[in-house]
Design goal:
The chain is an alpha/beta fold. It folds into 2 domains: about 120 residues, no CATH class; about 270 residues, Spore Coat Polysaccharide Biosynthesis Protein SpsA, Chain A (Alpha-Beta Complex), CATH 3.90.550.10. The protein contains 14 helices and 10 strands. The strands form 2 sheets. Strands 5-4-3-6-9-8-10-7 form an 8-stranded mixed sheet, with helices on both faces. It has a two-stranded antiparallel sheet with strand order 1-2. Helix 1 crosses helix 4, helix 3 packs across helix 13 and helix 5 packs parallel to helix 9. The relative contact order is 0.11.
């Protein structure tokens, strides 16, 4: 009997929801057209403000452009918003309905969840530390508990690939080959646990005569400081700095290092003491920038690891399944993705006053993401990706940006909002309302770029 009752109710519920959706289409159409006329603004902007008011994030402007196209086509076909607009598919109406339904059901779900756990006698298992590995524009999550095939020849194979790539760069770069010193920003706060392995890795890097390490002491023991100073006095590097800046945050430390380096280097990178690098990593990155003069930042793929090892060859062998596949990096693909976060190498000239400036010290965890946003806006083709996992990134459970309850997520959302609003301005400049009316359909957003190019060709 219960199944029969549910079966009988479904068509009624479907009809009611359809009527509500049709009414909502008309109401939203009327509201958007009225707001657009009153404020002399685009329909897409009015739709964006409506979604923000419903609790959506900033990154929903494509749905707003689709809604604008639907409204303009409906106005052309049916006239001002009215009964005939009921069948017009409004993307933001669906999104609004979903958000309101979720809000209505949340108290019920909150009340039922403990009861379901009590009935099943099960609690959600707490997973170990996880890392989101960039796989194109998506993520693939790996955890400490995941197993990986042990590949003892992984580092040797990677080295052979790196040497072949250097040969290719040399054939292209010509006289620029090997030019430019590299400043290495090393902010140290309680580095004792990882220091010896880090110093061994630093000394193993190729072409140490072009490296200028800058250690910034934000907090360490006197023994640790003396170890670093003795290491720097071995004469292996072209120069070095040890800056006493106790208590400074990481981006303040990096800015201090940049000022200490001045114009003595052409390239700069950052290096965390718990991370590791392939010996040819910096050489590859520097020669990439020497080869491609218009590029400003060289990014490699990176390999995540969850447990330390005495040799980096062992880290590569254990973590062959934990490598990224970083996509093309530009101001659009960077949205919500700090793709260059692990060991990028960039031109020192980016920090000049007339260029991108220095890191924003108001951030404690996402200042590098904010800086890359700025770089992408000023230099449209700034980033180059080297598809070799030459960086080893430690998913440190106590790290600044990897520990639980890190401020990094909130900070990244903050700078992502600023960047996305900049992109909306660009979109509004490039995509006119008439273009939305003619081309931007609800069901085919992937065709927008083709239509954009076709329209630009017609205009020229």
């Amino acid at each position: 009997m219960r199944k029969a009752l549910v079966g009988a109710m479904k068509p009624v519920a479907r009809k009611v929801l359809t009527r509500i959706g049709q009414r909502l289409n008309v109401m939203i159409g009327m509201a958007l057209m009225r707001i657009s006329a009153q404020n002399s603004t685009r329909i897409s902007k009015a739709a964006h403000q409506l979604l923000l008011g419903l609790g959506y994030g900033d990154h929903c402007y494509l749905s707003c452009l689709q809604t604008e196209g639907q409204c303009l086509r409906a106005a052309e076909k049916y006239g001002p918003p009215g009964r005939l607009w009921a069948g017009v598919n409004m993307p933001i109406a669906r999104m609004g309905t979903f958000q309101l339904r979720q809000a209505a059901l949340m108290p019920l779900r909150t009340a039922i969840r403990p009861l379901r756990r009590w009935q099943t006698g099960q609690q959600h298992a707490v997973d170990g530390i996880k890392a989101g590995l960039f796989q194109g524009l998506g993520y693939r999550y790996r955890a400490k508990a995941d197993t990986s095939t042990h590949a003892p020849t992984a580092m040797a194979e990677l080295t052979a690939q790196a040497r072949a790539l250097l040969t290719t760069y040399a054939a292209i770069a010509g006289s620029r080959r090997g030019q430019g010193s590299i400043g290495i920003l090393i902010s140290c706060f309680k580095p004792e646990q990882y220091l010896l392995g880090f110093l061994n890795n630093l000394q193993s890097l190729a072409s140490t005569q072009r490296l200028v390490p800058v250690f910034i002491n934000a907090g360490m023991s006197e023994t640790c400081a003396q170890t670093i100073k003795s290491f720097l006095n071995n004469g292996a590097f072209s120069g070095s700095h040890f800056l006493e800046r106790p208590g400074c945050d990481i981006y303040h430390a990096w800015n201090e290092g940049i000022r200490a380096l001045g114009s003595s280097v052409e390239f700069i990178t950052n290096f965390n003491v718990d991370d590791r690098r392939h010996p040819l990593c910096l050489e590859i990155q520097a020669e990439y920038l020497n080869t491609f003069a218009k590029k400003q930042v060289a990014v490699t793929d990176y390999t995540y690891f969850f447990e330390e090892a005495s040799e980096i060859s062992e880290l590569f062998a254990r973590n062959t399944l934990n490598r990224t596949m970083v996509p093309v990096i530009n101001q659009r693909t960077l949205v919500d993705r700090n793709l260059p976060h692990s060991g990028p190498l960039w031109r020192r000239s980016l920090h000049e006053a007339g260029d991108c400036g220095v890191f924003d010290e108001s951030y404690t965890s996402a200042g590098d993401a904010e800086f890359w946003y700025r770089v992408s806006r000023i230099h449209p083709d700034a980033f180059g990706v080297i598809s070799l996992p030459l960086n080893l990134y430690f998913q440190n459970p106590t790290g600044l940006s990897t520990r639980p309850k890190t401020t990094g997520l909130a900070e990244h959302q903050r700078c992502s909002k600023t960047h996305y609003l900049h992109l909306i301005g660009q979109i509004d400049h490039l995509i006119s309302p008439s273009f939305c009316r003619q081309y931007i359909q609800v069901g085919a957003p992937e065709e927008m770029q083709i239509h954009t190019l076709a329209e630009r060709l017609r205009q020229t």
